[in-house]
Amino acid sequence: MEYEIRNRPAFANVLIKLTRGDTVVAESDAMASMSSSITLRTRWSGGFLSAILRKLFGGESLFMNEYSTASGGELVLTQPTPGDIECIELKGQSLYLQAGAFVGCDPTVQMGLGFAGFASLFAREGLFRLRLSGHGRLWFGAYGGIVVKEISDEFIVDSGHLVAYEPSVNLRIGLAGGLFSSLFSGEGLVLRLKGPGRVYLQSRSIDALATWVNGHL
Amino acid sequence: MQTEIHARPSASVAKLTLDAGETVTCEVGAMIAMSTGFSVETTTRQRAGAGGLLAGLKRMVAGENFFLNQFTARADDEHIIIGPGLSGDVIHHRLDGGTLIVQGSSWLASGLGIHVDASFQGVGKALFSGESVFWLKCSGRGDLLLSSFGAIYSVDIRDSYVVDSGHIVAFEDTLQFSVGRLGDSWLQTLLSGEGFVCHFSGQGRLYCQTHSPKSFGQTLGPMLTPR
Amino acid sequence: MSSLAFEILQRPEFALLRVQLEAGQRVFSEPSAMAGMATSIELKAGLKGGLMGSVGRMFAGENLVVNTYRAADGPGEVLLAPAAVGDILHYRLSRSRLLLQRGAYLANSDGVEVSASWAGARGFFSGQGLVLLQAQGDGDLFFNAYGAVLQVDVTRDYIVDTGYVVAFEDTLQYSVSALPGLGIGGQAKAFFFGGEGLVVRFSGQGRVWIQTRTIGPLLNWVYPFRPQKRSD
Questions:
Q1: What pTM did the predictor assign?
Q2: Taking 50 as the threshold, does the pLDDT of residue B48 lie above it?
Q3: Architecture of the domain made up of B2-223
Q4: How near does any CA of chain A get to the CA of B86, in Å?
């Protein structure tokens, strides 16, 4: 199964060429267009309760689609926001994804819902996060460009700019500056990331976009 | 008219260079910058390139009317830079007697010689349940500029193809299409979240956009001040 | 003369400014632009409001509200991101002055002073002029655009829709008016959310930076997706 991530990073989308017997799992609404020879099967992913929780808290759809073909065909997968898409090959390790970042994966990848901790909730990252593990390819997207950072000690990230991170990275809520500064700097609460581990940041934030638009309304 | 497209695929603009007497028509608000040698006329709809005044069309948002600016160069080598409202792509399509059906908000500009018919109802409301989207039938000989939300990719259909409703930019009228569901059952369509899709068949070119304005609007909208 | 070590990543669609501060060095930015920073950086806030307050509230000469980042505990990096998707440009001021649209300001080094300027409109739409900032002094200035940036070196007169002006050198003369031809019985104003329909006419010699998107159409488009106020 070949794939190509096109139009990076502005409007990244994944063109997948499936041959007979190939299957790819993708979020509902992720399909932009496809050959008529592609069929889809809708299924709960990870169990009924997990699907409900994912919908309510994870920002993902209730259902996952399995796209396959009997004769071969093409599929274009996309995400709701402009931005980059990255592909990672999981080889037994896990990755945490923020709500809405999941685009698609091989059917061999397991998806679960994990509790992200209250720090994550207060920093507006959501109470739950997706945990992707197993073996296979994973496509995830961002609003903005994706910046990869290896954290060795500690790093501060504004909420809204975190996309994905390895389980070895610990999240802690913090104030951006002193109490006064945090309240008035427009930053407020931030995430203090403690490594070692790899994190994926996005160079824009939907929260910041909403604030900017609201400022004109 | 010469066309240069810059900043693809997300901040795309078209730089058009016109000689004396040449005209380009685009939506009011599309002009970004221009040299000073143009005369500008505002009309409500273009017909047969003559700019007849007809009842304005209701656009999809906030009752905004569909007003057009016609720019005519008074000297050679005048240039104008135009762009669409949203982040997205711009492409140039040359019509030579054929007909292109264009999704309303994807029409950016057309040169003289292009006949734009806004009364076309062929695609049907069902495709965009709840949204008022309109379609334009563009025919004649001349230059057409299309825009999108997302990057534009073209598919030269030989047999059949499926496109999610929010991703159609334009298609040649040699193609047949039907609006339908994605899966085998209504329940599956409802549950899978794909909504309506368009099945194209026949031979012809289809322009798609990689992103759907509706999906982005539904992500951003709830975070904004209530109206 | 202050000189910042910096890099602009992810150009041109989602440009991100990375400034490497030496110990004790400072950089100033638009409030809410901070995307990330090292723990050695001390952040001091400007008062809330700043550029996120509604447009047009600043008075000519009034200093801009900014955040101050200082590498208090050793050198460290600061990552700054604008809200809109688009490019970031660097401009080196050398006892010179640059005029920029209010939303275009991102960051500056010590030695640069950023304050409000005002260009009133002449013609039909008084009060809806161009809201400009001026940056002057010696040092680094960073400004951002919504969309891509086109650079035009004006020699003959040039017309730019006000919503698309990012910055221009103060060697240029400029005037604001309505686009000729626009206006059906004075209704032109009603078409546009955010004061579009006005243009700036530049003359003289100098550089103009133009962006390829503006906020008005975004506001119009997003309107039906906004939650509705419940009538109680």
A1: 0.87
A2: no
A3: 4-Layer Sandwich (3.60)
A4: 11
